[in-house]
Amino acid sequence: MKVARVVGTVTATVHQASYDGQTLLLCAPVDASGKVVGEQFVAVDRAQAGVGDTVLINAEGGGARLVFGRKLTDALAIQDVIVGVVDAFDEG
Amino acid sequence: MYLGRVVGTCVATQRSPGLEGVRLLVVEPVDGSGRVTGAPFVAADTVSAGPGELVFLVGAREAALAMEVPFVPVDAAIVGLVDEVHLADGARGFLRGRDDVPGAP
Q1: Is 0.95 exceeded by the ipTM?
Q2: What's the CATH architecture for A2-13+21-85?
Q3: Which of A91, B13, B74, B82 could form a disulfide with A32 if both were Cys (CB 3.0 to 4.6 A apart)?
Q4: Sequence-distant (≥ 6) Cβ neighbours of residue B6 within 8 angstroms
């Protein structure tokens, strides 16, 4: 799973059925010091995260299907899901 | 998932089975402020995106699942048209209807 910071919101009225009713947030992967370490990506919010929060991302479709209570064989076209809001994070 | 901007179309007459009728667009990856972050690539369109439009895409196996006929050889699919990106630092991101028309104020 990835740790990222929410850097913005994304509005997309026209979308695939998989995204109906979901909140899309723009995230940037960060390290323990909060430095951005990769390219921005879009994630579906399932943890009531907000802009500025450090979040935990499930970045793979199989886990995403489980988050949405779907079978692993279901056609859910979602990869990145915010599954937690990080309170503290350090690299030992 | 990630943001991209449609920059062109791709025509391919000879295709793998399952790809008949699939619209192929050339997309370049962008960040929330519209900066290009990588090389252009071809993605399958599922939402009738137009040239210049900001879109969001899904990759890997989920791209194939997004297609009308699932499990076809596709590894990037356009799954949404972005209306607006609102950035944390207060900077205005993308606003549909204004930034997708070249030369608009």
Answers
A1: no
A2: Beta Barrel (2.40)
A3: A91
A4: B25, B26, B27, B49, B50, B51, B52, B53, B55, B78
